């Protein structure tokens, strides 16, 4: 893989990563309600899930998307239900004005990671994207071990660079809220985003 090819691949994955979808909606909701740091495990989970799809495409596992349809359906429904549950808890949560009262997520790292992983894993169409996308930048049949590692590293880096700032940007919105009514509206808005993301996952085929 040449430098020019790698750079173009990085930019394309970056754009793909920030394209609005259920993952971006979930990150926005989590960033607004719990802060940018709470979005880190979710972003890592989403990005690693996408890298797994890329590796599956590289190794010619396109049959996964067709022969394991039932498994993906189960994953999608579970992920959608969890997102809707989180949205409900945000909608019904009491307004918090003191930043020190925002719930700590130190012990919640793996939960956020799994949530992010499930959000991306629930979309088997991602592997079809990579199957169609990768040959534009590289000859899959000629890739060696180092090329695959470089491609995976570029993929992961581009996704993280794209999605990590979203939670921190969303968190800044909360700093301008100075009344319980405003915070309650924000919580309900974030909860609606989360429920919307879950509904989108559940209803799409």
How many extended strands? Answer: 0
Q: Segments where pLDDT lies below 50 for 5+ residues?
A: 97-106
Order of helices and strands: HHHHHHHHH
The number of helical elements comes to 9
Shape: globular
**Mean pLDDT reading:** 75
Termini Cα gap:
35 Å
Kindly state the percentage of residues in helix: over 70%
Percent strand: under 5%
Described by strand count, sense and barrel closure, the largest sheet is: none
Report the structural category.
mainly alpha
Structure description:
With about 200 residues, the protein is mainly alpha-helical. Helix content is about 75%, strand content about 0%. It is built from nine helices and no strands. The protein has helices at about 5-20, 20-35, 35-60, 65, 70-90, 110-120, 125-135, 145-175, 180-205. Helix 3 (about 35-60) runs antiparallel to helix 8 (about 145-175). Mean pLDDT is about 75; it is low at about 95-105.
Write the layout of secondary structure elements.
Blueprint: H1 3-18, H2 22-34, H3 36-58, H4 63-67, H5 69-92, H6 109-121, H7 125-133, H8 145-174, H9 180-203
How would you describe this structure in keywords?
single chain; about 200 residues; mainly alpha; 9 helices; about 0% strand
Summarize the entry for a quick read.
This protein is mainly alpha-helical and 205 residues long. Helix content is 77%, strand content 0%.
């Amino acid at each position: 893989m040449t430098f020019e090819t790698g750079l173009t691949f990085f930019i394309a994955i970056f754009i793909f990563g920030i394209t609005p979808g259920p993952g971006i909606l979930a990150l926005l909701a989590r960033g607004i309600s719990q802060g940018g740091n709470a979005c880190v495990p979710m972003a890592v989970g989403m990005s690693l899930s996408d890298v797994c799809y890329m590796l599956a495409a590289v190794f010619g596992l396109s049959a996964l998307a067709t022969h394991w349809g039932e498994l993906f359906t189960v994953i999608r429904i579970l992920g959608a239900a969890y997102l809707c549950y989180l949205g409900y808890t945000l909608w019904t949560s009491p307004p918090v004005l003191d930043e020190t009262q925002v719930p700590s997520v130190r012990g919640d790292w793996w939960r956020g990671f799994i949530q992010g992983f499930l959000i991306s894993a629930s979309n088997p169409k991602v592997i079809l994207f990579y199957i169609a996308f990768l040959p534009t930048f590289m000859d899959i049949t000629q890739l060696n071990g180092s090329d695959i590692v470089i491609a995976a590293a570029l993929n992961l880096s581009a996704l993280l660079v794209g999605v990590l700032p979203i939670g921190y940007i969303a968190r800044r919105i909360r700093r301008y809220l100075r009344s319980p009514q405003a915070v309650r509206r924000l919580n309900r808005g974030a909860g609606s985003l989360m429920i919307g993301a879950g509904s989108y996952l559940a209803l799409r085929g």
